[in-house]
Amino acid sequence: MEGEFCECRPLGFVIGLPFALVSLVFCPVGAIMWLIGSILSCLCSCFKGCGELAKVGVNLVKLPIRVLRWFIDQIPC
């Protein structure tokens, strides 16, 4: 997996870095959403929608890596 991330496209990494840093702001928000959604869905079965809130939170936490990988994939070798 490491070879796939940093193949021969350092330009994509450099271009995507500012956008990844901006999306890094959303990581704490996603972590809080995940925590609240997980706790509420475990406490009571009537909070089934909170499971979806937890999934959105996890996606927000993964956002900076997804942004970097997208930019790296856009630059040809």
For this entry, give a set of tags.
77 residues, mainly alpha, 0% strand, Transmembrane protein, transmembrane helix, TAXIMIN_1/2
Characterization of this structure:
InterPro entries: TAXIMIN_1/2. Keywords: Membrane, Transmembrane, Transmembrane helix. This is Transmembrane protein. The chain crosses the membrane at residues 12-36. The protein is an all-alpha fold and 77 residues long. The chain has one domain. It has helices at 2-5, 10-23, 26-43, 49-74. Helix 2 (10-23) runs antiparallel to helix 4 and helix 3 (26-43) runs antiparallel to helix 4. The longest helix has 26 residues, at 49-74. The relative contact order is 0.22.
Brief digest:
With 77 residues, the protein is mostly helical. The chain has 4 helices and no strands. This is Transmembrane protein.
List the helices and strands and how they pair.
Layout: H1 2-5, H2 10-23, H3 26-43, H4 49-74
Strand content: under 5%
| Low-confidence regions | none
**What percentage of residues falls in helices of 4 or more residues?**
over 70%
Q: What is the residue-mean pLDDT, rounded to a whole number? A: 77
Count of extended strands: 0
From the spread of the alpha carbons, the general shape counts as elongated
Number of domains: 1
Tell me the series of helices and strands, N- to C-terminal. Answer: HHHH
Compute the gyration radius: what is it?
16 Å
| Structural class computed from helices and strand pairing | mainly alpha
Q: What is the overall number of helices?
A: 4
**N/C terminus separation:** 18 Å
In this structure, how is the largest beta sheet organized? none
